[in-house]
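This part of the workshop introduces the protein records we will be handling. Getting from the letters to the C-alpha cells is the skill we practise here. An example says more than a description, so a record of this kind follows:
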Amino acid sequence: MPGCRSLLVLLAPVTLALSACLHVDAHIGPRPVAPPERKAEPAPPAKADPAPPAAVEPARAQFAVLPKVPGEVVRTKPEAPATTSTNTAQKPPEKGPAVPPNILKAGSGEPAAFPPLTQQLVPPEPPLMSAVRAHCEGRPEQAIEIIRRMEPNQQEFVLGVLPILARGASADLANDPATAAALTDQLRAAASRLEPLAALKIEKVAFCTNEPAGFGRFVQRPTANHYRPNERVHFYLELRNLGHQLTPDGFLTHVHGAAEIRDAKGNVVAQLATDDHRRAPVVKFEKRFVTRSPLQDFYVWYAFSAPPAPGVYTIHVQLSDASGRRTVSTPADRACEFNVAGP
C-alpha cells in the first residue's frame, strides 16, 4: 500500500492543474435490500389468457421512483387523472333562421257549422205519473185513457184512489170534516175491492172464560188458571181480509177451519169432533154468517175439551176462505199454549 500512496501524491499536482469537470454516468444510490425468501406456496389455479404485464419505463426516465424489487419500480405518487381544461370556451350552437310564428289568416268562405248535439235518451214517463199529471191538470178523459193501458186489477184500484189523491192534496182536511168523511168512504170502498186479493191475517188469539159476545167482546182467561182434564176450552181468533160474497139474502162471510192439539213433545193428541163426538187427530169446522151489511170485523170462536192427561199443550188452527186458495195458521208462540193440571 505504500506504493499506492506515493502514486497518488504524484498525480495530485497534475490533477489540480486540470479543469474541474466531473461526469457521473451511473446512478448511485443505496443498494436495494433483497426481500426475505418466502416459502414455496402452492401454485394458484391457472387462469385463462392472462393479460400481458404493463410495460415499465426505464429507471433513468422516471422521476421520484424508488425500486421495490430488483428490476421493478413503483411510483411514490399516483399519476393524476387526465382532465380536460375547463377554461376552454365552448362554441355556442349555431342558430338557424328564425321561424316566424303561425299567423292566422282570414278565411274567404263561410264559417263551418257547429257539430250536432247528441240527443239524450229520456226514459218514458210511467203511466201512473202520466195519469196523475193529466188528472191534476184538468184532463180526466186523457187520464182514463192512460189508465186503460194497465192491468185490469190495477185499473180498478187506480180509478178508485186517483180522485182521492187529487182531492186530498187540495183539501183542508183539518177544518173540513165533510171532505174527510167523503175521503174515508172512498178509501173503504177501495180497500173492500182489495180484500178478496189480500192474504188472510190472524191479528189476535186468546183463551176466553166463555163464549164471546161479539168482535172483541170476551173475557180473557188468566194464564195462571190451569184447566182441569176434559174441561171446556174456549179459543178466540180475529181474522182480517176475509171479504164477503153478495147473495140474494145479503152478504155472506164464509170461513173453513181445522184444529189440532199437540203435547209438549209435538205429538198430536186426539180430541172429540164437534159433529159426531168421536175422537180425531184433526177436527174440521165451518163458520157462515149472512148479514145485511158487509162485516168490517170478523172473529172465529172454537170450543173443545181439554185433554185428559195433565201437561202443557198447544193448539194449532188453520183458516181458509170459501175458495180454499187463501189460508193462514196460528202463530207458533206461547199465546196458543194452555196447561192441564191434575184432578
About this structure: Residues 59 and 73 are 7 Å apart (CA to CA). The mean pLDDT is 77.
